[in-house]
Design brief:
Number of domains: 2
Structural class: mainly alpha
Strand content: under 5%
Shape: globular
Order of helices and strands: HHHHHHHHHHHHHH
Number of helices: 14
Number of strands: 0
Length: 313
């Protein structure tokens, strides 16, 4: 039976495979081709393990859980580059003008990002660009800490939360594709961000549909609240970086304010939902096994929760 992370990622994988098979010419950017190739390797390894490794479905094995967790998270992150071509193929519109109007409505008719452009300075741009680039540091630090401390329940919450945040964000990209203020408000900015190499790198690898919601905000906020719950000293250590990432999303003109608000709401919803999903999933798996077995055996066993990371708390 699939892991929850695999359940959330699978529909996007099926969609991408169907679109690429229908029109291979869509996949032209090198990032997208590389991501699809690596995804294919991960899928082949996963299928081989599922078919020929009897322990692959053993949820009591910490090593197996770790392998499947890494595969699920990797596949989720590898979806991102392919959205560059998949989203326009499904929904070719752009909603930058709508998001900019929403910002102006929130701020009494003024564009909030234009109000802060007087703060632009090359050194600040470099610092916030580096912070934005280092968004992977807090989740990796928390994940490694939880793993070495054998806090598997909390680690499962973190990984499932990150996958769910990204999958809901990807759905947002399909529903409300937008590039971001650097594109939507390009003719209104009067102060350049200068020739910062990190900004240039982001522009070269941006998929041009990833404004709403802000996944940098959603993932960073989610990691922040889990770090507060699971390791308070690490929270205080990473807090400056977490705050800098939040500021960078708007200072670097990647996101509208409404993108940031949507990211915060998404993080809050996922934080509330993930522990409940992780608690319910083992029971659903047990019930499915019972029904596949024809309902024979101890009925109480169908509702019993098999050993899982959630029970390690």
């Amino acid at each position: 039976m699939l892991d929850l992370k695999e359940v959330f990622v699978l529909p996007f994988l099926v969609l991408l495979i169907a679109l690429a098979a229908h029109d291979p010419s869509l996949v032209v950017h090198e990032d997208s081709r590389t991501a699809l190739a690596v995804s294919a390797v991960v899928i082949v390894v996963w299928c081989a393990a599922a078919l020929w490794c009897p322990g692959w479905h053993d949820t009591t094995s910490r090593r197996v859980r770790c392998g499947r967790d890494l595969a699920g998270v990797a596949l989720c992150l590898l979806l991102y580059p392919s959205l560059r071509w998949a989203v326009p193929a499904v929904h070719p519109a752009r909603y930058d003008a709508v998001l900019a109007r929403a910002d102006r409505w929130l701020f009494g008719g003024r564009d909030p990002l234009l109000l802060i452009e007087h703060l632009v300075h090359p050194e600040l741009t470099a610092m916030l660009g580096l912070a934005y680039f280092c968004a992977w540091v807090p989740p990796v630090a928390l994940g490694l800490l939880l793993y070495v401390r054998h806090r598997d329940g909390e680690l499962s919450d973190l990984l499932l939360g990150l996958v769910l945040v990204h999958c809901v964000g990807f759905l947002g990209y399909f529903l409300v594709p937008a590039v971001g203020p650097w594109y939507g408000l390009a003719d209104q900015f009067r102060v350049s961000l200068s020739d910062n190499w990190l900004v240039a790198h982001y522009l070269a690898h941006n998929n041009n549909v990833d404004a709403f919601p802000s996944l940098h905000i959603a993932a960073t906020a989610l990691v922040g609240v889990f770090t507060w719950r699971d390791c308070r000293p690490l929270f205080w250590l990473t807090l400056p970086l977490l705050l800098a990432i939040g500021v960078a999303t708007m200072y670097l003109r990647w996101h509208y304010v409404v993108d940031v608000l949507a990211g915060l709401l998404l993080a809050a919803a996922v934080r509330l939902l993930v522990p409940r999903l992780n608690a319910a999933w083992p029971r659903l798996r047990a019930r499915a096994r019972y029904e596949r077995a024809g309902g024979t055996g101890n009925r109480c066993g169908a509702d019993a929760v098999s050993p899982s990371p959630q029970n390690s708390r």
